[in-house]
Please model this.
Amino acid sequence: MSRQTYLSLAGAGARLPIGTHLLLHAHPDPEAIVLDGRRLGGVIVEAAERFRTSLAVPLMDLALEKEALLLACGLPASQVDGHHFSAPPDIPDEIPLTPRMRAACGALAEVACRPGLVPIGMAIGPFSLMTKLVCDPITPVYVAGTGVTADEDCEVALVEQLLASGERAIHRYLKAQIGAGARAIMICEPAANMVYFSPKQLAVDARVFERFVMEPMRRIAGLLAEHQVDLIFHDCGELTDDMVRRFSTLGAAVLSFGSSRRLWEDARLVPSDTVLYGNLPTKRFYADQFTVAEVERLARELMARMGATGHPFILGSECDVLSVPGKEREILSKVDAFMNCPGASCAC
Amino acid sequence: MTTLEQLYQAVIDGKNKDARALAQRALDEGANPGDIVDKALVPAMAAVGERFKSNEIFVPEMLVAARAMKEAMGVLEPRLVAAGITPKYTALIGTVQGDLHDIGKNLVAVMWRGSNFRVIDLGSNVPATKFVSAINEHRPHLVGLSALLTTTMPAMVETVRAIRSAGCPPVKIMVGGAPISQQFADEVGADGFAPDAASAAEKARALVESA
Model:
């Protein structure tokens, strides 16, 4: 793949939501579909067609890697959601793919057979995965940032071990997705943000952010580059400018940030051949007070501002747009509002 | 600087080992354990809350301060229990059903403990029925409901309704979380709302003291 694909899409004024969840839940049996690669692939194709895009974006299910890791440790499936490690676990070298991961790979293979579509994979980032594995990830990471080592503090040792184990699980899944035909992979690091890292601490010394976020991400970027698979980096958390600058060094073809960022200002912080994506506050689409008219207004404003920067931009959602029972139509109408509203295309 | 002043500063700075040692030193010097809590730990956490509200510090600094306070409390608690001194107010807290996020809820629990509440943390993804049974069991003065996802706001509505209609002992209800607003709190019949953890501590005290 080449980043030219995304630049061309941006130049043509492409728009797309991360909206496969909406289409999946329009089916009567979503739980069965996510375990069936062929059918899941069909839903991803359906979403790409529904939203008139060549980018076949899968479900943003960021619980898969935690499930794989905990099942590999012998935990029963019923305990996976709420489990947190309080002591270093005995994690086997080989972390098998779960049935849902195998279905996601099957879906990629299915999409890869469809001409004109770009099969996109999905994975959580190593830091965000680690934060799901312990009750309080913030304190030990901060303490590590003060120079305390794993030898001196058992909580620091725990988060370091889980970060490394999580990274292994992610690499295993990424390789499987690449093998299944992914031509780009979206890595989601929503926890690499101002809640988990103190801007005050990072202003003095950002090595903790490098160690816990950037170094694992660089290894992932290297793995993808080795296989000519494009990196789409997603972080919808609240970020500092410095965090954005660091993410910009990953060589991502696309950077996707949350609505707390002013993308038109971020355009100055990222390379000119990196497409900025998304940013509409889709997490507010579930609220009645956030109207279709407001979505259109924000979409037009964002397109105009990004057009003025000349930076390549694809309008879309700040995160995945979820289907909520009883609100399906309302949410879809808001997605359609930004997909269809008139507005200046990006002049790049 | 007196020992209590040093303890106050150690908590603010998140120096947990110093906080523990200073709490022990204060006891050794003959300080009343209740006074150590009231004159050093509670004011320290109040100062932490103020700094958080004014963006001088962020969530991690708040958590390490709470850890330091907890270390000091580890030294003081046996003495407080022996003297029959317990926190005046009890609070229950949990993230509503369907929502697995707990950072915000944990921060509020930290600040409530720092305001000398006894806090019972029900965890995340808590069904309304569990809130009701915990209220009947612990008879708290206050219950806090947290939600991060807009998609779980209906569960908050349901939980408030369940608490109000289940014949529970009288209890003040506070709601909070990223998508929650004062308007929403009013609509669902909650007694209070706070936009951040530090404000949640002030609001909690105001609610229970006005009851």
Remarks:
- Strands of chain A lie at 15-18, 55-56, 118-124, 184-188, 230-235, 254-257, 275-280, 313-320.
- Chain A touches chain B at residues 81-82, 136, 138-139, 141-143, 194-201, 283-284, 286-287, 322, 324 (CB under 8 Å).
